[in-house]
């Protein structure tokens, strides 16, 4: 693989073109579960103070019988556990026993639609029955393949629909299916909640009611009132009206500082009409998602304590973002750091057939995709009618980002790059992680992530915000997943600890290992070789409908309303489609011993 200079016609966001990319088809192939813990072979030294479990979630099964998924995000959730104790590591994995997984397995074909896959009618049905099945209701998937999240001390796996599953982190067994909509009026929640130090959890989710689509900020209390508690006590802190109610933005996550939730309304839009009618039209849900570069990105600030939405809106150019790095308040400004792309169409390229390409075709997929880079935005918190217009309000000498009041309640922001030109050679950075336990919502110096000289991460990076220099771990032919920072027991400095990452190889059978790096130097301390293959993938879902005639009428009425632009309505299909995005990435969680 050799870097070549970009052509003059190549836009800034396609800074590095590559040739000769290695095929990674085996990384997006189905795997067998390992339901009982197995030993690993440790090379080097894994510090004996690391005692706990690394949990990972992602798609692990891409076909049932003769049917197969189209999009990487559609695969069935596979849960992985690396248990580390006294320098030794065991590994186990289980498929999430979701309704989607069980129904697909029972029929030995895909009977539930997912983000990029529309389930085909039962081949045993006659023509008329097949026709009617196009009017069946699409239900949100419970294939929670995105990540592990924590509410009230319990572990759940989540996607972006209204369904989560509580799981036992010790044996990865599926315990209980939980429905957000049974507790609050939302049709889903992201798989990236934020946590206050006391355990209070914040999240976001859309609702689709008679007032149209709304973005909702959610707060879940830290304590259980009963041992059977799940989401009891959850509240909608506030709701934000989309710029276009029938085309709300897709969001994968949000940012949080000490006092504010920051919602990023980006130009990745959901065409609710297309989503609602996808089965009728015989199209996958993913076709209702589109990038609209004519629209600016808007930051909405919500006071965490009062739920009040700031009347001041912070605009910037069209960007897409999946993961934020950190946000903190300093001297009357909110510093917002996140990974951004200047193009939001990448989601459509993560088809399984693209990921399994080779040669020039694979290079072409990569070279037409926009890379993601870390950027800082500086948002002035005290904007009033007295605030002068048309001048840079950023008085923080630590950042070159600008923010200008352009009219009443509108500030336009220009970012500062949190990197030098050398990051272009590593394909940008995604899957950002920080020392979350001590530095989330606080000023910080370091973040970690994956470099992307391939469609999946091919290096691990540690960025130092002091001088924007970074350290790299890279081994040719190996592909590391999201890095997780684990602080050492006597940690004093921000980077006292280790980085853990699951590393895969597409060419070596059973070439998987858990990598342990010194977080200060990014040098390898040790690795645990796992004698099984682990995929790099994701999941999907759909459930067959109920009373056909009723749903046919329902769909047609909704279609009429939407065409007249008079209303939008509740559609689980919307949230079903959202789940797919998250699957872009496999997520890891570190659990300290009890
Ligand atoms: Fe994510």
TrEMBL record:
<dbReference type="GO" id="GO:0042574">
    <property type="term" value="P:retinal metabolic process"/>
</dbReference>
<dbReference type="GO" id="GO:0016121">
    <property type="term" value="P:carotene catabolic process"/>
</dbReference>
<feature type="binding site">
    <location>
        <position position="192"/>
    </location>
    <ligand>
        <name>Fe cation</name>
    </ligand>
</feature>
<feature type="binding site">
    <location>
        <position position="252"/>
    </location>
    <ligand>
        <name>Fe cation</name>
    </ligand>
</feature>
<protein>
    <recommendedName>
        <fullName>Carotenoid-cleaving dioxygenase, mitochondrial</fullName>
        <ecNumber>1.13.11.71</ecNumber>
    </recommendedName>
</protein>
<feature type="binding site">
    <location>
        <position position="323"/>
    </location>
    <ligand>
        <name>Fe cation</name>
    </ligand>
</feature>
<keyword id="KW-0223">Dioxygenase</keyword>
<keyword id="KW-0560">Oxidoreductase</keyword>
<keyword id="KW-0479">Metal-binding</keyword>
<dbReference type="GO" id="GO:0003834">
    <property type="term" value="F:beta-carotene 15,15'-dioxygenase activity"/>
</dbReference>
<keyword id="KW-0496">Mitochondrion</keyword>
<dbReference type="GO" id="GO:0005739">
    <property type="term" value="C:mitochondrion"/>
</dbReference>
<dbReference type="GO" id="GO:0010436">
    <property type="term" value="F:carotenoid dioxygenase activity"/>
</dbReference>
<dbReference type="Pfam" id="PF03055">
    <property type="entry name" value="RPE65"/>
</dbReference>
<dbReference type="GO" id="GO:0102076">
    <property type="term" value="F:beta,beta-carotene-9',10'-cleaving oxygenase activity"/>
</dbReference>
<dbReference type="InterPro" id="IPR004294">
    <property type="entry name" value="Carotenoid_Oase"/>
</dbReference>
<feature type="binding site">
    <location>
        <position position="539"/>
    </location>
    <ligand>
        <name>Fe cation</name>
    </ligand>
</feature>
<keyword id="KW-0443">Lipid metabolism</keyword>
<keyword id="KW-0408">Iron</keyword>
<comment type="similarity">
    <text>Belongs to the carotenoid oxygenase family.</text>
</comment>
<comment type="function">
    <text>Broad specificity mitochondrial dioxygenase that mediates the asymmetric oxidative cleavage of carotenoids. Cleaves carotenes (pure hydrocarbon carotenoids) such as all-trans-beta-carotene and lycopene as well as xanthophylls (oxygenated carotenoids) such as zeaxanthin, lutein and beta-cryptoxanthin at both the 9,10 and the 9',10' carbon-carbon double bond. Through its function in carotenoids metabolism regulates oxidative stress and the production of important signaling molecules.</text>
</comment>
<dbReference type="GO" id="GO:0046872">
    <property type="term" value="F:metal ion binding"/>
</dbReference>
């Amino acid at each position: 693989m050799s870097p070549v200079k970009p052509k003059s016609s190549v836009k800034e966001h396609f800074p590095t073109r590559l040739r000769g990319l290695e095929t990674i088809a085996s990384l997006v192939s189905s795997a067998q579960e390992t339901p009982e813990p197995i030993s690993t072979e440790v090379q080097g030294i894994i510090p004996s103070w690391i005692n706990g479990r690394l949990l990972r979630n992602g798609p692990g099964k891409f076909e049932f019988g003769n049917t197969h998924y189209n999009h990487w995000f559609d695969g069935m959730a596979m849960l992985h556990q690396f248990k580390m104790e006294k320098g030794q590591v065991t590994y186990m994995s289980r498929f999430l026993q979701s309704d989607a997984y069980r129904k697909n397995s029972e029929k030995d074909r895909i009977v539930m639609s997912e983000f990029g896959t529309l389930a085909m009618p039962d081949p045993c049905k006659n023509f008329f029955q097949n026709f009617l099945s196009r009017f069946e209701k699409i239900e949100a998937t419970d294939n929670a393949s995105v990540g592990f999240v924590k509410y009230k001390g319990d572990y759940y796996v989540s996607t972006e629909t209204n369904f989560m599953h509580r799981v036992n982190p010790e044996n990865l067994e599926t315990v209980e299916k939980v429905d957000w909509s049974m507790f609050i009026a939302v049709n889903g929640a992201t798989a990236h909640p934020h946590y206050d130090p006391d355990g209070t959890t914040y999240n976001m989710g859309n609702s689709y009611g008679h007032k149209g689509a709304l973005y909702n900020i959610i707060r879940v209390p830290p304590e259980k009132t009963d041992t059977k508690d799940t989401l009891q006590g959850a509240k909608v802190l506030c709701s934000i009206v989309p710029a276009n109610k029938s085309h709300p933005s897709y969001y994968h996550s949000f940012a949080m500082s000490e006092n504010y939730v920051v919602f990023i309304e980006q130009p990745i839009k959901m065409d609710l009409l297309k989503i609602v009618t996808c089965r009728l039209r015989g199209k996958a849900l993913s076709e209702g998602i589109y990038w609209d570069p004519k629209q600016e990105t808007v930051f909405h600030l919500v006071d965490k304590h009062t739920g009040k939405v700031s009347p001041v809106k912070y605009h910037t150019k069209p960007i897409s973002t999946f993961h934020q790095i950190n946000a903190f308040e300093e001297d009357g400004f909110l510093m917002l750091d996140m990974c951004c792309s200047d193009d939001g169409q990448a989601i459509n390229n993560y088809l399984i057939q693209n990921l399994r390409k080779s040669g020039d075709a694979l290079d072409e997929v990569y070279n037409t995709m926009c890379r993601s880079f870390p950027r800082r935005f500086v948002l002035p918190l005290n904007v009033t009618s007295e605030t002068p217009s048309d001048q840079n309000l950023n008085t923080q000498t630590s950042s070159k980002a600008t923010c200008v009041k352009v009219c009443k309640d509108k500030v336009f922001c220009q970012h500062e790059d949190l990197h030098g030109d050398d990051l272009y050679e590593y394909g940008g950075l995604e899957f950002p992680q920080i020392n979350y336990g001590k530095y989330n919502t606080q000023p910080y110096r370091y973040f970690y992530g994956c470099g992307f000289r391939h469609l999946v991460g091919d290096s691990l990076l540690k960025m130092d915000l002091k001088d924007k220099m970074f350290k790299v771990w890279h081994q040719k032919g190996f592909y590391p997943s999201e890095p997780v920072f684990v602080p050492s027991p006597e940690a004093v400095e921000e980077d006292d600890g280790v980085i853990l990452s699951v590393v895969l190889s597409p060419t070596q059978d059973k070439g998987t290992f858990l990598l342990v790096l010194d977080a200060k130097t990014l040098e390898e301390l040790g690795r645990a070789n796992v004698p099984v293959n682990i995929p790099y993938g994701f999941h999907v879902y759909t459930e067959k409908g109920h009373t056909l005639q009723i749903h046919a009428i329902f769909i047609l009425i909704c279609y009429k309303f939407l065409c007249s632009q008079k209303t939008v309505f509740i559609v689980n299909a919307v949230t079903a489609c959202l789940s797919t995005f998250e699957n872009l990435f496999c997520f890891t969680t570190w659990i300290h011993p009890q």
